[in-house]
Amino acid sequence: MRNYDQNRALVTGGAGFLGSHLCERLLEQGSYVTCLDNLFTGTKRNIDHLLSNPYFDFIQHDVTNPIHIQADEIYNLACPASPVHYQHDPIHTTKTCVLGALNVLGLAKRVNARVLHASTSEVYGDPLVHPQVESYWGHVNPNGTRACYDEGKRCAETFFFDYHRQHNIPIKIPRIFNTYGPRMHPNDGRVVSNFIVQALRDEPITIYGDGSQTRAFCYVDDLIEGFIKLMQTPDSFTGPVNLGNPEEFTIKQLALRILELTGSKSDLVFEPLPADDPRQRRPDITLAQSVLDWHPVVQLDAGLRSTITYFSDLLGLPAACVTPIPDKVAIQPSQAAQGF
Ligand code: NAD
Ligand code: UDP
Ligand code: UDP
């Protein structure tokens, strides 16, 4: 049951990592939330605590098929996000990106909804411009193993902007940079989840390449705050707008940090770099700061600690293995450039 004046939010991919946090946040702000997910990488465990909420619904559905429900605002997050998962069935990944966008936009057109689409820093590919600004068109291999995701997400942006221009649909396009936190999938192969699970199990930490490639890591709460602020902007603001943490670290630096925070005995092992793996990535968030008055506030150590606690609970390990580190020895992001 919902109140007649209650905002109705549809979250596709709502049982996934980001989606489940978004559903939670939308319920907190008083929306009626429908979570739609095919449970490919998401799980009901992520939304278990929401299922008894009278303002929350779950629908198991694939976004490549038409969607017929009511909504005032739509958050289109449905898509596997980690290379291991999106390369598992690359044809379905492209269909999810492209047909999913088409169906969500057709729905938005029919029910007059505003629609936010989770785009990605992958649209910049292996970038030749650093840090990445929204005006950069990217450097993407159109037929490599990452293309199902990168080109799928680029085509989805095309659909969103054409529906906006042709049908006046209010659209919001965040380009999300690497985000981490509780409820990441433990086997999704992403660097933060891999390293934490390996460290907690005292298994070797797998660094691909020499670990000098860089990424900038945003804590999930910061990102969700950015989504909420973006959805509240006037219809004239569409993005694309980068959302991410501009503090850049090398992958080796991240591994050492996680070893220290977990007190792990794991060794570092070096494995081949996957094809088309971007060398460096860091968002320029000037636009988000000026239009949304948004910037991330959670430091890497604090975000890693809460993520480590989540994974140690999930793996049934004692939470005590999260080692408190005095701030004075915390690694500063500026050291990343020195290849730490
Ligand atoms: P996730 O894999 O945890 O969540 C994706 C959700 O979408 C899962 O619940 C999955 O079951 C669902 N899904 C996948 N294909 C579907 C389909 N065809 N129909 C319906 N549901 C489907 O990943 P996440 O990290 O939460 O990512 C959410 C969104 O954010 C994705 O669109 C991703 O591309 C984007 N994104 C995430 C990051 C990040 O660092 N986490 C970075 C850039 C972009
Ligand atoms: N669509 C949907 N739900 C709706 C309305 C449309 O899933 O409530 C799908 C529809 O099946 C179509 C797509 O969205 O494949 C695009 O719809 P649109 O009306 O823009 O295009 P058309 O149907 O005219 O090709
Ligand atoms: N990576 C790594 N070891 C792992 C998993 C990933 O060294 O066990 C590297 C990966 O090659 C990439 C970076 O960490 O350079 C980030 O990988 P992730 O899959 O998390 O995100 P993306 O490449 O999509 O940014």
| End-to-end separation | 55 Å
Mean pLDDT: 93
The secondary structure category is alpha/beta
Shape: globular
Number of strands: 15
Bound molecules: nicotinamide-adenine-dinucleotide, uridine-5'-diphosphate
Helix/strand order, N-terminal first: EHEEEHHEEHEEEHEEEHEEHEHH
Q: What portion of residues is helical?
A: 25-40%
Number of distinct helices: 9
**Main sheet summary:** 6 strands, parallel
Q: Which strand order spans the largest sheet, edge to edge or round the barrel?
A: 3-2-1-4-5-7
Task: Name the poorly predicted regions.
Answer: 325-340
Report the portion of residues in β strands.
Answer: 15-25%
Spatial extent as radius of gyration: 19 Å
Protein described:
It is a single chain. With 340 residues, the protein is an alpha/beta fold. The chain has nine helices and 15 strands. The strands form five sheets. It has a six-stranded parallel beta sheet, sandwiched between helices. β1 (8-12), α1 and β2 (32-37) form a beta-alpha-beta unit. α3 (90-111) runs parallel beside α4 (147-167), α5 packs parallel to α7 and α7 (251-262) packs across α9 (300-314). The longest helix has 22 residues, at 90-111. Residues 325-340 have low confidence and may be disordered. Residues 12-13, 15-19, 37-42, 62-64, 77-81, 96, 100, 118, 120, 176, 178-179, 185 line the site of nicotinamide-adenine-dinucleotide.
Descriptive keywords:
three-stranded parallel beta sheet; 34% helix; 340 residues; binds nicotinamide-adenine-dinucleotide; alpha/beta; binds uridine-5'-diphosphate
